[in-house]
Amino acid sequence: MNYDCAVKGENISKKFKTFTLDIPDLRVPKGFATALIGENGAGKTTLLNMLSGIRLDYKGELTFFDKYSSEEKERRADVKNRIGYTGTGRYYLPQWTVSDVEEISSLLFDNFDRDEFERYCRELAIFPDSPDGVALKKKCSALSDGTRTKLMNEAMARAAYGLNDTVDSLLAGIMVAGAAGAIGSDESPFVPTKDDAYDLLVDLGTELTEKNVPLLGRWVVVPPFYHGLLQKDSRFVGNGTDVNMAILQGGHIGAAAGFQIYVSNNVPNTDGAKYKILAGTNAGASFAEQITETEGYRPESNFSDAVKGLHLCGVKVLQKNALATLTVNRK
Predict the structure, then answer these.
(1) C-alpha closest to that of 327 among 194, 212, 218, 184
(2) CB 225 within 8 A of CB 264
(3) In the structure, what pLDDT confidence band is assigned to residue 256 with cuts at 50, 70 and 90?
(4) How many Å apart are CA 11 and CA 26, to the nearest integer?
(5) Looking at the whole model, is its pTM more than 0.85?
(6) Alpha-carbon distance 290 to 89, whole Å?
(7) Vertex 112, ends 107 and 115: CA angle to 5°?
């Protein structure tokens, strides 16, 4: 029988200590609902994680929509937008609200529909006690999941913040090291002022443009002191747009010089000097993370409940030309 495949796999293999998942030939036809059946430990979740891009540590070849390899899928937003995956794990951090999930999903997927998201919330009765069927401020950790024990408390929220902070530093260091473009150096860093901080971002954008990096989707991450300099420049806060009006009101950091601008305390630096301001697009690097295990336990040192988990993450620079750095000193 001949048919088009949504997913095709050849010689897919993943070895564990006590088990090897081995699939010589895989075909998932287009236009069908395909069930994956097997006993516990057969590798169903492992295979789904491979198909969704959560696991990349396998051998073999996967082809999506009769055209794209796994590597191409990870680099192309238009392909990833066609793939959705709902697993059994807890993929949302405990302090996230449903509104956070909605916002982050809209950033990850170009075709994300907020109205459809809220409609499904109502139809699936996710918030049965809410008058209008939607409670976007409700934390994910408070959502019912059968008999799942609700162990996500304020202590876990603080731990999650610390986890995010650690991962953020890891990402920044690897991406800065892999960036091809550079303005300034450790030997000759710029010392920005309120009069030229904006101009340096323009120069950083020019560095990317000269390497044929698309204008769409550019971002830059600056340290707090640099953000403070930008706020003193009328070109950043005084042009009257809705976004920049929000800056004056203490809201979103804003957009300028062709970038979406983010502020972070994790901009790589050397003892408070030689800050590496990183700019680029999402095509520059790929990041994956997963909390594979969580469990509650009683610490030996005190009478309390605690939660521990195993967090796996990795980042790889894919296109060096899509990343550039600006080296600055505070003074």
Answers:
(1) 184
(2) no
(3) confident
(4) 8
(5) no
(6) 9
(7) 120
